[in-house]
């Protein structure tokens, strides 16, 4: 049996000309729009649109179907509005992308109090930028700017990438080695320690090492754990080193559970950006999320 929502989605695609436009008009995700369309095409047995770039061009059969269903769907929508409780409001849903550690450290504590629905997505930054451009995500938190003309970036904070260690790491011995300014000695001392890394992202360690020693690290971490927050918790055991963003462990350094070992010869900093599409139906919700981030990280 056909789902009437498929026809409503079909009408929205026809009217807006894009999957993204239909998703914005219906307050659903772009994958949801694609699923409705493919389901309807499978049901009727023929293609309803030709995909040309990002534009959805209706086929001849698509035009015939639109002429047949447009007026009845509009009437049903009017009936829905008339019978809907006057006090009932549509609760928007926005999709936000960021790294797992950033979510845990910032937004997680506020989720239960948000006045709208929220979908959090984790992934690599290039992938999130692509999903933002396609309308799958509405807002991303990223240290990397994309090049799409549809996306605007707003700097709101920065993170410094630092070398930290457990409280039992002999920082005094390391400082003595640092005073020699002998790069080989400094690197050798660090390589003799136990190291933590993550399964998904070694970029911070690679960049920190290249900045300070001129090459990628020629060793593998001793312990590979799921994410950087796991690293911080492991370091509280007393030993080991890791390269992490400072905001993830600032409170642990202040409490003495983790040590700041070295900021590097040159400070390694990333600017953090809000990324969102220039045209969005969720400006109010996006500004709410931005405000929470500024409150925590500003």
Can you put this structure into words, describing what you see?
This protein is of the alpha/beta class. The protein has three domains: 4-87, Arc Repressor Mutant, subunit A (Orthogonal Bundle), CATH 1.10.10; 93-157 and 270-297, Periplasmic binding protein-like II (D-Maltodextrin-Binding Protein, domain 2); 159-269, 3-Layer(aba) Sandwich (D-Maltodextrin-Binding Protein, domain 2). It has helices at residues 4-16, 19-26, 30-44, 60-83, 100-107, 125-134, 171-180, 183-191, 203-213, 228-235, 250-255, 283-297; strands at 49-52, 55-58, 93-97, 117-121, 139-142, 151-166, 196-198, 223-225, 241-245, 258-262, 268-277. The longest helix is centred in the N-terminal third of the chain and has 24 residues, at 60-83.
List keywords for this structure.
298 residues, alpha/beta, Arc Repressor Mutant, subunit A, D-Maltodextrin-Binding Protein, domain 2, 7-stranded mixed sheet
